[in-house]
Amino acid sequence: MKAVLATKNKHKTGEVAALLSRFGLDVELLTLKDIDFNDEIIEDGETFEENALIKCRAVSQKYNGMIIADDSGICVDALGGEPGIYSARYAGDGNDDSNNKKLLEKLINVPREKRTARFVCAFAAIVDGNEYVVRGECEGIIAPQKRGSGDFGYDPLFEYVPSGKTFAEMTEDEKNSVSHRANALKAFAELMKTLEK
Ligand code: IMP
Hints:
The chain is built from 5 helices and 7 strands, in the order βαβαβαββββαα. By secondary structure, it is α/β, with parallel strands linked by helices.
């Protein structure tokens, strides 16, 4: 199976391909660069699912084969689900440090039992003109301060309670066995396998 992943990020492509293969789906993934797609995609949906589909639809204007796209973020209960789909730009400058700082400031004086949150990831696909979308989540707690050396997004603040560690303190393999992205890709691989039958 061959598909375009609607991202310019080669690292993400490798990670998604590895996870899909772990779930029994062998896909040769191309990036937007590989198909020379340079248009800006306006992600103006109101949900992770909508934004993932918007990316697929934009690419489908120029590419006929299978297309996959994801959208993800963190939803904090005490903040009514913020930052949600705005996770990447929460503090306005697209910087992980500023985003983490803003989140901690908003949760100042909020006790541990009310710091519940979840990472959410939606994966959408267009296959033979049909649209599909799945969602994966991972529950956790926003720690009172950053912990761990991994420095992607909100990883240092997101404590996965069964391990007692933040995502930034877990190995890549540990994170990949429980993460929202892994859960979404597991559901996605199952869905694609039913289409192959
Ligand atoms: P994207 O949709 O994968 O680009 O993710 C949007 C934003 O959500 C990122 O910039 C991060 O701030 C946050 N995010 C999504 N997934 C993760 C994760 O696994 N760890 C930390 N932050 C994440």
